[in-house]
């Protein structure tokens, strides 16, 4: 809900500034004096708008893919933990119980500690790695049937998925890209402020529509740039489901 309110405030604020700029420019430079610049501005607006749309589309696709990859990483990690617990069924009862306990503790660490820290932009700490190391040591005591994958190898799959998740959590589009987006937005939206409209209402409507759309696009990119900052983008469903399965396995 905060994202919607923040987005609306940005939209109204930028559109308000653009509207004030239109009024100021019309008073300083009346439309009837711009006849010789209208055609040039139309070409510039078309060219810069097209180029900016292409750049923004590539950036949007990139950050959207980061979110998809982060969500996939959570499912790979959760499923690998579940596979470790299932592979422990062939081990001694005390080892099996220890692996189930460590698997559940690791998932609870992610749900209760790591995901909230990732949403807040904080380091996740080392407790998760410590639990994985304990899990690896416990799975080393599970006998491996011939031609079967050892539980210890499955723990390495958990570690790989964990590394992928943490790497994607820190992935950004970069300051240079943001500079291109912001400066490009200025270049793409500025020409419409100087168009020769006979009626101010028409110019205000066109200007706020263009500026508002650019604002919403930039705000959306900013919101989805960090996939773990929103429970809607990367929900904890994968970990929650595996916790429920482990609880059912122990009953």
TrEMBL record:
<keyword id="KW-0472">Membrane</keyword>
<keyword id="KW-1133">Transmembrane helix</keyword>
<protein>
    <recommendedName>
        <fullName>DUF4239 domain-containing protein</fullName>
    </recommendedName>
</protein>
<feature type="transmembrane region" description="Helical">
    <location>
        <begin position="176"/>
        <end position="194"/>
    </location>
</feature>
<feature type="transmembrane region" description="Helical">
    <location>
        <begin position="200"/>
        <end position="221"/>
    </location>
</feature>
<feature type="transmembrane region" description="Helical">
    <location>
        <begin position="7"/>
        <end position="25"/>
    </location>
</feature>
<dbReference type="InterPro" id="IPR025333">
    <property type="entry name" value="DUF4239"/>
</dbReference>
<dbReference type="Pfam" id="PF14023">
    <property type="entry name" value="Bestrophin-like"/>
</dbReference>
<feature type="transmembrane region" description="Helical">
    <location>
        <begin position="40"/>
        <end position="61"/>
    </location>
</feature>
<keyword id="KW-0812">Transmembrane</keyword>
